[in-house]
């Protein structure tokens, strides 16, 4: 039988005034196996801890109970002390007789009796405690960052600057994301390209970053610290290893493909670089539109390329990489105009979305920064901006606030006024939300000094009438219906997760919330981590976010990765689930209840096993196990039952 | 000939009985018979706006249950209001178990189980939403098929420019009706094209005509109807086509009042969809009840026949 | 006066922390319960509840995080489902289902923990002790 020692703390008078601590020690001391029991005025003090260490050695104790305050306060203190005395730390338990006994009762006799039961229950638990070692797993100190927008760029740079290797995967031919499409950024109006491009170049040049654009994550397996990932690089039909990026091929290509980067306002060839500042600045061939692929003829690019970089026979390549952590920065999309039936369903040419207006504003955009409407190229004199187009609309569209639109719409209206001095911008809004540094001031400047007309209300309908686009809305402050015959309408369409995000969630086995945005481990306290260890979140894939927030979150995610990598091995609480292989019938219920993907079916043995590195020790699978094959270490069903029995005064 | 269970509703039996006749005529020309339910009651008509949550559904539930008990699983109506009421009741019964139980309790009280078994020789079973409710327009689109209609045209409405008018209750609420997108519908457009006519696109096709306000505050209805009709006419429509007796009443009979309030307004003919369907399928012009219209439709109807003769 | 014996199964993150807060706030409540700490209420097996009744408990309290707050995603939903089924089972055993109580108690709800304990004790007092034969059933 185990030799157990019990130490009852007075906590000055905090425990001793309501609980008769001597009596507790005396009563518990009578239990079989309890070879030593005492009380002491302050167990957590240095002499108190010394007493524990001394008695462990002197009495040759196999297990120790400290009856004191909440385990949340001093469990680790005493376990460390026990470890110093040569006792396995998991052989020490705390019995909480302060917060859950002496502080909440006044009847000394009853409180004492309850304290005795609490300590006895803990003696019964400890009797069956196993000596455990922290779970220790090695770490591959290399990170995978998925998504090359500003969030992914920032996370990759931060991790790489800390001295760790990073693989940055981006599905487009170039990194940059939506930020590369923007003209100027609120509230400072600095040019988006000017602040983004240096970071893109830094990524391209960084010795620790392996940049894989035009690539997607195909598959991931493993667990925190030890993932294996398969990355598919789409065939670019251009050999990037020898291509100099001279651009000759893009100039001779006769095909005309609408530029998605320019929101279809311009075209590029079938062989193209998405935008001049692209990183890497290497072209890809769009197979679907390439005349050579369609007819077998043309091949102008091939003839033009002097170094022979055009390779029509190139195929997709799949790469295997080992990484220790993954940052998911998959970005966002905006609600397609076709979904907004009430606003013309995308069929009215002069109804465009915010990103399209950014391209019109951009000095390097399709109109060189001149604002010209799509239908006839006329400079619009009356422009209506519609906020919450699809946001805050639970009946028809998205219930949530897209967060960035209030600010960018104000910026749009303001920049429009700077370009078209005699133009009149109107903004329909539900509420103006300016929660950010300098945002409210920016909005006030726009409203008071820039002649923008703000109309509080929703727009009911938009339709084309001749050359004009008619907007029907309500001004709820005057209670009047409003009709504006506009030259151009800009919709602040809802921010939505990318279509590919749902696929990514399935591939990575991480979680997404009801609206499809990635779910964080805790909404307040763990906002940059996924619930699944080893995965970190950055940017608008987790929820609508502006640039400063995306950058901050990316930095946070990078820090989490760096902190993970700073350890030699990963140590985790060993009180995890454990399977009795003889009892397991292979029903797999445990696999279905585990939120961490820690339970897997071992086909060979025909049983469900535990991946200790992933198990968080919640015990859900233990309760679900029908035959008792799964147990939680140091909290087995037998231990629980013995504790219950002891708490009720039984044996 | 295929028989399709048919619920006419009150308006189509009284004030708008000519529309009922045209619907039956058109259906037969398309190869199916509108088979009126043996005994039916008012659908309830106003449940959508009533606050009571259960009693207002009993009348329509009874109709649906009788339909099922007569061995039919499809019920067609040609009135937007009846369609809305029946379909929403059915939706509630399907989705909400408590409502379903309460309604069946009421229905069972009307007709005790004992009587029921004697009459039908089958045990009582709760009505659980088994019947599918369809608008005739929906039936034409989804069962007959617009392509099939086009093949059967004997008098295509070529050259006719028609403005579709949807009103309110045919499409809303979207999650319960699910017939078409209420903000950007296309079912009447498809119908017009299937008849060989041309669609006139105008912004007011889904705006409100004033509905019951024509009783309590006719001025509102007059103003709204004016906007709809003048917008359609402004876009070159020869006539407006719709599928709701109340909309028909507002847009047709109100035109005299409109002319008084808005001088310069030119009356425009309004057709119920069944009338044009019947004509296009070779129906007789005398069976459409055109004499009961407030706005003279003879010009448009003449042109339909003239067009046919030219061919 | 009859003093019922109560076993409280508390998750450590919310209900357990709430019980600690009741202590630090010095909120007095009846001393009839003994708390057993779990990492998550999702670890609680219906068997544990029956065991408690069999060994002399007059009431069992299960305390977990509020829905949506579970530290382990959805352990409390699993508990909710299990308790619902177990309550029906208790009827079959002849055990009044009021003797099993499920409460969502957050780490900030010390006052709620105290009032739940007072209320539950009162309720169990009015129900009286469990009949020995019934207790036998739970075993």
In short:
The complex is a heterotrimer of chains A (651), B (311) and C (139). In chain A, 29% of the residues lie in helices and 24% in strands.
Write a structural description.
By secondary structure, chain A is an alpha/beta fold. Chain A has 18 helices and 34 strands. The two termini of chain A are 16 Å apart. Chain B folds into two domains: 133 residues, Glutathione S-transferase Yfyf (Class Pi), Chain A, domain 2; 157 residues, Rossmann fold, CATH 3.40.50.11810. In chain B, helix 1 links the parallel strand 1 and strand 2. The mean pLDDT of chain B is 90. Chain C has 139 residues and is α/β, with parallel strands linked by helices. The model of chain C has no long low-confidence stretch (mean pLDDT 92). Classes of the chains: A alpha/beta (651), B alpha/beta (311), C alpha/beta (139). Chains in contact: A-B, A-C. The interface between A and C is large, with 46 and 41 residues.
Features:
heterotrimer, A: 651 residues, alpha/beta, Rossmann fold, FAD/NAD(P)-binding domain, 29% helix, B: 311 residues, Glutathione S-transferase Yfyf (Class Pi), Chain A, domain 2, 2 domains, four-stranded parallel β-sheet, 10% strand, globular
Structural class of chain B: alpha/beta
Instruction: Give the second-level CATH assignment, the architecture of the largest domain in chain A.
Output: 3-Layer(bba) Sandwich
Sheet with most strands: strand arrangement of chain A: 10-7-6-18-29
Euclidean distance between termini CA atoms of chain B: 30 Å
Number of domains of chain A: 5
By DSSP, the count of extended strands of chain A is 34
User: What top-tier CATH class of the largest domain in chain B fits best?
Assistant: Alpha Beta
| The level-1 CATH class of the largest domain in chain A | Alpha Beta
CATH superfamily of the largest domain in chain A: FAD/NAD(P)-binding domain
- Please, how many domains of chain B? 2
- Main sheet attributes: strand count, strand direction, barrel closure of chain B: 4 strands, parallel
Mean pLDDT of chain B: 90
- The proportion of residues forming helix of chain B, as a percent range, comes to 40-55%
């Amino acid at each position: 039988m185990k030799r157990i020692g019990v130490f009852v703390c007075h906590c000055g008078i905090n425990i001793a005034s309501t609980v008769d601590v001597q009596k507790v020690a005396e009563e518990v001391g009578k239990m079989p196996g309890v070879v030593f029991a005492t009380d002491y005025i302050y167990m957590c003090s240095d002499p108190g801890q010394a007493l524990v260490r001394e008695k462990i050695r002197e009495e040759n104790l196999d297990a120790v109970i400290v009856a004191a305050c909440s385990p949340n306060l001093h469990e680790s203190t005493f376990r460390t002390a026990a470890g110093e005395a040569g006792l396995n730390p998991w052989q020490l338990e705390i019995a909480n007789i302060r917060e859950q006994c002496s502080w909440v009762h006044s009847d000394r006799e009853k409180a004492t009796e309850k304290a005795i039961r609490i300590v006895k229950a803990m003696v019964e638990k400890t009797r069956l405690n196993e000596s455990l070692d922290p779970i220790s797993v090695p770490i591959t100190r290399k990170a995978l960052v998925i998504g090359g927008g500003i969030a992914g760029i920032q996370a990759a740079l931060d991790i790489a600057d800390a001295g760790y290797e990073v693989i940055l995967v981006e599905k487009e031919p170039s990194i940059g994301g939506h930020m590369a499409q923007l003209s100027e950024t609120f509230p400072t109006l600095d040019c988006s390209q000017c602040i983004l491009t240096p970071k893109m170049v830094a990524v391209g040049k960084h010795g620790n970053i392996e940049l894989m654009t035009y690539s997607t994550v195909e598959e991931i397996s493993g667990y925190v610290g030890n993932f294996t990932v398969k990355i598919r690089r789409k065939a670019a039909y251009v050999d990037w290893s020898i291509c100099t990026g001279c651009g000759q091929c893009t100039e001779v290509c006769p095909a005309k493909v609408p530029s998605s980067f320019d929101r279809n306002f311009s075209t590029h060839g079938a062989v193209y670089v998405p935008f001049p500042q692209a990183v890497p600045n290497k072209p890809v061939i769009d197979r679907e539109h390439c005349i050579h692929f369609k007819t077998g003829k043309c091949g102008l690019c091939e003839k033009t390329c002097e170094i022979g970089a055009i390779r029509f026979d190139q195929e997709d390549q799949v790469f295997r990489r080992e990484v220790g952590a993954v940052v998911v920065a998959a970005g966002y999309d905006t609600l397609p105009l076709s979904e907004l039936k009430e606003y013309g369903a995308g069929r009215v040419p002069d109804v465009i979305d915010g990103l399209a207006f950014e391209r019109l504003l951009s000095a390097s955009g399709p109109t060189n920064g001149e604002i010209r409407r799509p239908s006839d190229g006329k400079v619009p004199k009356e422009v209506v901006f519609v906020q919450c187009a699809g946001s805050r609309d639970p009946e028809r569209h998205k219930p949530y606030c897209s967060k960035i639109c209030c600010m960018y719409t104000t910026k749009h209206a303001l920049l429009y006024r700077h370009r078209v001095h005699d133009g009149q911008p109107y903004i329909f809004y539900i509420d103006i939300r300016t929660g950010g540094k300098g945002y409210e001031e920016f909005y006030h400047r726009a409203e008071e000094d820039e002649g923008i007309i703000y109309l509080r209300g929703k727009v009911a309908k938009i339709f084309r009438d001749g050359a004009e686009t008619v907007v029907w809305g309500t001004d709820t402050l005057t209670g009047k219906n409003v009709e504006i015959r506009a030259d151009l309408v800009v919709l602040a369409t809802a921010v939505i997760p990318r279509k590919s995000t749902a696929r990514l969630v399935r591939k990575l086995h991480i979680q997404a919330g009801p609206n499809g945005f990635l779910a964080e481990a805790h909404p307040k306290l763990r906002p940059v981590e996924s619930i699944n260890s080893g995965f970190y979140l950055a940017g608008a894939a987790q929820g609508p976010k502006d640039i400063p927030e995306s950058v901050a979150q990316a930095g946070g995610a990078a820090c989490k990765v760096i902190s993970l990598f700073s350890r030699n091995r990963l140590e985790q609480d060993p009180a995890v689930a454990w399977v009795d292989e003889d009892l397991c019938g292979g029903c797999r219920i445990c696999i279905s209840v585990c939120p961490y993907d820690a339970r897997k079916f071992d086909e060979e043995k025909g049983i469900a096993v535990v991946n200790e590195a992933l198990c968080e020790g919640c015990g859900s699978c233990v309760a679900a196990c029908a035959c008792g094959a799964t147990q939680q270490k140091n909290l087995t069903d037998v231990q629980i039952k013995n504790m219950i029995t002891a708490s009720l005064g039984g044996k | 000939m295929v028989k399709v269970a048919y619920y006419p509703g009150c308006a189509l039996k009284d004030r708008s009985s000519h529309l009922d006749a045209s619907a039956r005529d058109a259906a037969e020309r398309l190869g199916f018979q509108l088979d009126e339910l043996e005994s039916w009651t008012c659908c309830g008509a106003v449940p959508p706006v009533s606050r009571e949550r259960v009693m207002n559904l009993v009348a329509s539930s009874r109709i649906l249950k009788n339909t099922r008990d007569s061995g039919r699983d499809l019920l067609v109506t040609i009135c937007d209001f009846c369609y809305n009421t029946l379909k929403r009741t059915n939706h509630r019964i399907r989705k909400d178990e408590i409502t379903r139980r309460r309604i069946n309790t009421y229905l069972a009280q009307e007709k005790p189980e004992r009587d029921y078994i004697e009459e039908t020789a089958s045990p009582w079973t709760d009505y659980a939403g088994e019947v599918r409710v369809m608008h005739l327009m929906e039936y034409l689109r989804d069962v007959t098929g617009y392509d099939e209609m086009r093949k059967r045209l004997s008098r295509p409405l070529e050259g006719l420019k028609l403005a579709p008018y949807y009103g309110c209750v045919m499409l809303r609420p979207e999650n319960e009706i699910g017939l078409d997108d209420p903000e950007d519908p296309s079912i009447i457009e498809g119908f017009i094209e299937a008849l060989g006519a041309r669609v006139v696109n105008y912004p007011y096709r889904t705006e409100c005509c004033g509905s019951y306000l024509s009783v309590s505050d006719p001025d509102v209805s007059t103003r709204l109807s004016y906007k709809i009709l003048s917008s359609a006419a402004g876009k070159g429509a020869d006539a407006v086509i719709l599928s709701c007796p109340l909309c028909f009443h507002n847009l047709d009979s109100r035109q005299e009042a409109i002319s008084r309030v808005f001088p310069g307004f030119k009356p425009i003919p309004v057709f119920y969809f069944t009338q044009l369907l019947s004509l296009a399928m070779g129906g007789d012009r005398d069976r459409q009840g055109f004499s009961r219209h407030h706005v003279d439709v003879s010009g448009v109807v003449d042109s339909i026949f003239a067009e046919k003769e030219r061919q | 006066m009859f003093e019922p014996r109560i076993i409280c199964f508390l998750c450590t993150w919310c209900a357990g922390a709430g019980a600690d807060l009741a202590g630090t706030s010095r909120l007095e409540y009846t001393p009839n319960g003994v708390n057993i700490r779990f990492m998550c209420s999702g670890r609680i097996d219906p068997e544990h509840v029956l065991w408690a009744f069999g060994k002399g408990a007059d009431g069992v309290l299960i305390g977990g995080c509020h829905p949506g707050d579970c530290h382990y995603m959805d352990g409390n939903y699993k508990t909710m489902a299990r308790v619902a089924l177990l309550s029906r089972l208790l009827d079959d055993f002849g055990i009044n289902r009021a003797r099993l109580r499920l409460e969502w108690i957050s780490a900030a709800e010390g006052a709620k923990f105290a009032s739940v304990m007072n209320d539950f004790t009162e309720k169990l007092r009015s129900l009286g002790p469990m009949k020995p034969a019934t207790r036998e059933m739970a075993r």
